[in-house]
Write a structure and sequence with these properties.
The protein is α/β, with parallel strands linked by helices and 252 residues long. It is built from eight helices and ten strands. Bound molecules: 2-amino-2-deoxy-6-O-phosphono-alpha-D-glucopyranose.
Length: 252
């Protein structure tokens, strides 16, 4: 079941999304979290760090698996998703370093790395909450628009639209990696619950397409319509604009 919440600001949407994760971690200290990068989850991570700092929640027993990582960037490169996760969350909470997992973008053997990451995900015994953002082209993780949905970890060629979108974080467009490892759609769909966050007007059309258009691998996020559990969608006013206009009754 999909529930869509719209908030005035991305900050408020992030605080609301963080409350769901905080509740989960309180109820089950050994929670497994699937995590995402991008600017949309940042306010949520900030709020989780605040709650941890305030002693409201602890991540001591939490394990995490991230969705994706660029190929060719070392973990300490300031644009790697590993760096992002430490900078925005892990360095600010009491999680154990050995409990955090991301694909290794520097793996010499991509096939072996896919197998390794599939085994890591399987060893978690199920993701309790999967955090997702959405690319401007509808990607989740780095599952780009395609003619099929993938099950397990994939090595993807990033589309021009994704490279353009992510070039804002790099000095030059040529510096943006062209390939990435991503958790597959099938693995994402195995989570028990999804917390989806998106902000900014650039996301307004694609979130409407994802949640109200046809289910198609051309809009990878649209598969969430078939998700068996709850999909909780936290949008700021700008990202919710097209849904609000076309489906005003759909907003919780
Ligand atoms: C990245 C990540 C996605 C993320 C998306 C949107 O490329 N691979 O997992 O959802 O971009 O990011 P943002 O929230 O910055 O728009």
């Amino acid at each position: 079941m999909i529930k869509i919440f719209s908030y005035k600001t991305a900050e408020e949407a992030g605080i609301a999304a963080a409350a769901v994760i905080a509740e989960q971690v309180k109820n089950k200290p050994a929670t497994v979290l699937g995590l995402a990068t991008g600017s949309s989850p940042v306010p949520m991570y900030r709020e989780l760090a605040r709650r941890c700092d305030a002693g409201e929640i602890s991540f001591k027993e939490v394990k995490t698996v991230n969705l994706d990582e660029y190929v060719g960037l070392t973990a300490d490169h300031d644009q790697s998703f590993s760096y992002f996760m430490f900078d925005n969350l892990f360095n600010h909470i009491d999680i154990k370093k050995e409990n955090v997992n991301l694909p290794n973008g520097m793996a010499a053997d991509p096939v072996a790395e896919r197998d390794r990451y599939d085994a890591v995900i399987a060893s978690m015994g199920g993701v309790d909450i999967q955090v997702l953002g959405i690319g401007n082209n509808g990607h989740i993780g780095f599952n780009e628009p395609a003619d099929h949905f993938s099950y397990g970890t994939v090595l993807v060629e990033l589309t021009d639209s994704t490279i353009d979108a992510n070039s804002r974080f790099f000095e030059r467009r040529e510096d943006v990696p062209t390939r990435a490892f991503t958790m597959g759609i099938g693995q994402i769909m195995n989570a028990a619950k999804i917390v989806f966050v998106a902000s900014g007007k650039v996301k307004a059309d694609i979130v409407e397409k994802a949640f109200f258009g046809p289910v198609t691998p051309e809009v990878p996020a649209s598969i969430l319509r078939f998700f068996k559990g709850e999909v909780l969608v936290y949008l700021d006013e700008e990202a919710a604009a097209v849904i609000k206009e076309k489906h005003p009754d759909a907003l919780a």
